[in-house]
Here is the input.
Amino acid sequence: MSTILGFDIGLKRTGVASGQCLTKTASPCATIDVKNGRHDWNKLDALIEEWQPSSIIIGDPKSDDPHLGKAINRFKSHIQQNHKLPIIEVDETLTSSEANQAFEGRSLSLDKKTQLRDQLAATLIVESYFSDS
Here is the structure.
């Protein structure tokens, strides 16, 4: 069964979700920290090794923020140079807003909500890819 990994790339954290191509389902799986504009490449590499994805899905925020653009470009370069996996960009407009709504009224710490929000946003990106394909 073919697996993909989806990423909601951010300036502080990147949410990660796995997707199963046969069932067209997605699940949150991790959060990667970003410090000083740099992802935790060791964690990213370990996730790719663990999941062995056939491709990578990246949310395209349609943002004019040059810092976010640089972070996304560094992320894509790392994938291309170190893993040689196909990268598919998917419009991620409003995924973080949808993810925030999912946690309204729940008694979770702010840190836990933030982590889960990023993972859920990545899940929504993968689900969007599946619904469009």
